Amino acid sequence: MALGSYKPSQQCGNTYCNKYLLPSTHYPQVFGTYFPYLPGTSFTMLISEFLSEARIANVYWGTGAWFILGLPKVGEDTQFIIPNGLLDAAARTIAAKAYIPVCAAGHECPVMKGRNGRNGRNGAGPDLHFHINHYDAYLTLDLFERSSLVPALPELGLGVPPVDDPTFTLASNFQREGRGKGCVAASGPGRFGSRCTPFSEDGPAVQILTPAAAVDVLIYLCLRHFGKGAHWITWADGLFGLGVLYSDGAKYERDVSKDISESGESRGYKHDYVVAYSVANGILVEKYLYSQCI
């Protein structure tokens, strides 16, 4: 099935779609693909390539990137981190190349408010977002400036990261077994069909964070936004999932017959996942218990 051929039996049932989304006839064909888009490998490569061609460095982030690293579920949003000061350029590029307009509602968008909790934006939401599917307003493309997400993250670069880069790597370096069978959406099975296929080495060089860097970033985000909205829940799930996955040799089921060190070196990364996971878990549990007492 072509990337843009998804046609639910009913169009979006609320007035939000008509208020903030242009009619589907507005969106012309893009490289054999039509609006509406669906999240997944093809869409991710398309957006990454458009941004890279515009000399805008980009790193794939969020549940889609964690799925590449081994977690079982993906969310409704396709997220990228971009350098500071390039939001407007990125929005113009996406509008011109993919024909997806930036959401005019901004941080007041009902979808974003739902993800950010009852108090609205708390710094956890994206700086810009786009609705990629006229039939499902919850499917979004989200852009984060590097400093608004994680100020300590190194400067982003174009092209292929060095093999020994501790922070950035390529999505195509992770060929997860069974990924061609499809992925399970966090909101329910079958949402995205079979679109979470492995990234090809012959395709665009889509950058993601290394497992070590992803764990570090998630620890920071979980502590900064403790208990604030659905974003925090997603990040906490990602942190605990990656912490278990990359610590003590654990993958989906722990194989006690294998003698693998706790440092994670067996996976090619020198990072103490056990310590990172344990410390974060302890702090988060302590903060949760404290919040229940006040």
Compile the SSE list and pairings.
Layout: H1 15-20, H2 41-53, E1 59-61, H3 63-69, E2 73-74, E3 77-82, H4 87-97, H5 110-116, E4 128-131, E5 140-145, H6 146-149, E6 168-170, E7 184-185, E8 207-209, H7 211-224, H8 229-245, H9 273-293
Parallel strand pairs: 1-8, 2-7, 3-5
Antiparallel strand pairs: 1-3, 4-5, 6-8
Helix pairs in contact: 7-8, 7-9, 8-9
Largest sheet: 6 strands, mixed
Low-confidence stretches: 1-22, 24-34, 118-122, 177-182, 184-194, 248-277, 288-292
**Tell me, what's the shape?**
globular
How many separate domains?
2
How many helical stretches?
9
| Rg on CA atoms, Å | 19 Å
Structural class: alpha/beta
Average pLDDT confidence is 68
User: How many β-strand runs?
Assistant: 8
Q: How far is the first residue's CA from the last residue's CA?
A: 52 Å
Q: How are strands sequenced across the largest beta sheet?
A: 4-5-3-1-8-6
H and E order: HHEHEEHHEEHEEEHHH
DSSP strand content: 5-15%
The residue fraction in helices comes out at 25-40%
